[in-house]
């Protein structure tokens, strides 16, 4: 690992080969980053973005602020506060991310108290970390293009209604949401001007290769990801007639040009649903939904034309690699990668990083799969407290460093919510 980590707390390595280091120097508070699809390291490797709160679990809402900042690896390794937001959750944080076309600016979601017609209550802030200069954008972001020119935005009201683990609670009253409206879906926002436009509507998605299960269902989109060259993006289209039961959600993987044209359907997980459970029957476990055979989840780009995703191609739940614009689908790690996780390829494209959901002993695995040799390497086995429940849970959400020699995770294995860096240089250098 880089010597900039020398002032952080060193823990006993999970294995001799992959030492793990806790960020923050043991300072008070709980720290987390959020999702697996963003790089928290600055371009020079000396700052790692993070959020800080004073409790490990809580009822989230417009009253609860999280600090936004970074760990300063150039100095004492401690957390430096940049601001705060009440627009966040434990799974995705506040969508905090570096703007790749700038030297030192970040973007993150914030609350807006000025009335506006589109996505009221929520906005985004761009902040220059070095100068402190900030400006607000009219919509909350989901993902920002590597080019730094635009972001894709969706309704966090719909996420809060369908999937509250990754939504935001509003502070003003809301009207009931339509099932598949023509005026909501995916919006593209220009980051220089704040101008935005709806480029893919939910009504359009319901009419795109429709299936019968869509007719009376509630529709939403999630897991947007823009290709590295900023020309296309992917997303999951989800729908259900029973929001409360996540095992009854249905899923599609779709790609589209960055202007909303040229929709392509890569996979559809529509399937006959089992009868509803009898009254009084045991409820599904916290992670049964994530482990369901028909689940399509956690897509990520590998380069500009391939997508890795956990999904049910040919009714086989596997890690599948799709080639956009073709019918080519390849199983990755057949017989080795056997359960759903949050996966991304290393910068060089050889190593597939992922995690697992808790096993019977409430431990998660942090793993790396060598696509050249087919060998699976276990980096860590970390405890997670089942009492955290669904909304407050802490998935590892592993993230590569920019040089591909370190991995950052969120974890609660020390009975605190903290961020850790695992040194994988011995593996990838070999």
Describe this structure in words.
There is one protein chain. This protein is mainly beta and 430 residues long. The protein has a single domain (34-272, 286-380), classed as 6 Propeller (Neuraminidase), CATH 2.120.10.30. Helix content is 4%, strand content 37%. It contains three helices and 29 strands. It has helices spanning 156-162, 202-206, 425-429; strands at 9-10, 20-22, 30-32, 47-53, 66-72, 79-85, 97-98, 105-111, 122-128, 134-137, 143-144, 150-153, 185-190, 196-201, 218-226, 232-240, 250-257, 264-268, 297-302, 306-311, 318-323, 329-332, 344-345, 351-355, 363-370, 376-383, 399-400, 406-411, 418-423. A five-stranded antiparallel sheet has the order 1-2-29-28-27, with no helix packed on it. Strand 19 (297-302) and strand 20 form a beta hairpin. The radius of gyration is 21 Å and the shape is globular. Residues 1-14 have low confidence and may be disordered.
